[in-house]
Amino acid sequence: MRATSQPVIVRSHTHFPTIRTFSAWTPCVARHRMCKYGHMSNRFLLRDALAEFPPYVPGKPPASAPGLKPYKLSSNENHLAPLPGVADAIADAGRVPANYPDPKSTKLVADIAAHLDVDEAEIVPGAGASEILSALTNITLEAGTSVVYPWPSFEMYPILASARGAEKRPVPLLEDGRHDFPGLVAAIDDTTRLILLCSPNNPTGLSISTAELDGFMAEVPAEVIVVLDEAYFEFATDAEVVDGMAAYRKFPNLVLARTFSKAHGLAGLRVGFGVADPTIATALRQVIAPFSVTSTAQVAAVESLSRNDEVLVRAKDVAATRDQFAQDLRNAGLTVTDSQGNYVWVSLPDDDAQDFEAACAAQAVAVRKLSGGVRISIGPDEALDRVREVATKFAASRTA
Ligand SMILES: Cc1ncc(COP(=O)(O)O)c(C=O)c1O
């Protein structure tokens, strides 16, 4: 209960007097707690819930090893140089840093809408798909609501759910790394406001089929928003993979989250977008900070989209390398999923995954150990060759 009382002047550690209203909950001002991730909380009246937020752990940079060029295969970045016109557009836009960007990303929105053959009102640009996902949690979740998502999947999902104070309902993936749709349906109840799906799934790489999504959507209440996170869809080559746009046209409560970070190789500029029913799109625009997509990001995305055919050719090249690399690792004796992203997933017990990551680091290649395995982004041949060698020795040492 928050009792009221008279304001008092107190001296803060900065020596400027500040006015605070002391009340029955004052004791928490003095409470200093260390959360399990080592943060101090509540010294400054921060939310208690922060202590329970799962941390976002970014992919590690590569360790240095004498005589070896370092490679980072830990963040699913695109290792190819930007397309020529894109590099020029970035250089031009960077010349006028004093002006705010177009807050509506007018040209980018128009081009995406034309490209996807939807109305401009259905396109919401943001600083990466991350901002779209964050906005989706912002317009749907609060205390007393729940969000359902597969797990393991993109690490931001539980962080964003925690940020909104919603109940997290992670549904374990099936043994083979695919979404457990009956499990996801069973996790939905009348508190559920948001469902997140990821195709291809990060980190397992497996994607959702059209039949799976159709069957699932038939079970979800029509007013509950379902997000299909398609950050990696350009790399998918399996004919069964759901076509997000076709699904979007069928289901008004389906929202697509897409990005220029992966196939378009613009992760450092931060630009992505949502495709949503205009009512949902309007709500998303309400919570996204103005000017979040920089001028440079806007022109780079416009230019890259105009070269989408080239982007797709490159994505399919990456996919071909991925399939060969996955097969090589299988031949070496590892268990590797049929990934549809720009990465492969090696299933390993946690201790082995740790050792594998360390063995790659010793070769100046950063890969990503996660719960249940190691994720390796597709990178230059030299980097993949080093991982192949590590895999061969590693598998041999495990069978010796
Ligand atoms: C599945 C998935 N969704 C969304 C994102 C966010 O991408 P960005 O914010 O760079 O657009 C990522 C990034 O790695 C991802 O793996």
From TrEMBL:
Residues 72-388 form the Aminotransferase class I/classII large domain. Keywords: Amino-acid biosynthesis, Aminotransferase, Histidine biosynthesis, Pyridoxal phosphate, Transferase. Transmembrane segments: none annotated. SUPFAM superfamilies: PLP-dependent transferases. One of its GO terms (molecular function) is histidinol-phosphate transaminase activity. It catalyses: L-histidinol phosphate + 2-oxoglutarate = 3-(imidazol-4-yl)-2-oxopropyl phosphate + L-glutamate. Its cofactor is pyridoxal 5'-phosphate. It is an enzyme of class 2 (transferase). One of its GO terms (biological process) is L-histidine biosynthetic process. Its EC number is 2.6.1.9. InterPro entries: Aminotransferase_I/II_large, ArAT, HisP_aminotrans, HistidinolP_aminotransfase, PyrdxlP-dep_Trfase, PyrdxlP-dep_Trfase_major, PyrdxlP-dep_Trfase_small. It comes from the Bacteria. Pathway: Amino-acid biosynthesis; L-histidine biosynthesis; L-histidine from 5-phospho-alpha-D-ribose 1-diphosphate: step 7/9. The keyword Kinase does not apply. It holds the Pfam family Aminotran_1_2. The modification N6-(pyridoxal phosphate)lysine is found at residue 262. Homodimer. Belongs to the class-II pyridoxal-phosphate-dependent aminotransferase family. Histidinol-phosphate aminotransferase subfamily. This is Histidinol-phosphate aminotransferase. The lineage of its organism: Bacteria, Bacillati, Actinomycetota, Actinomycetes, Micrococcales.
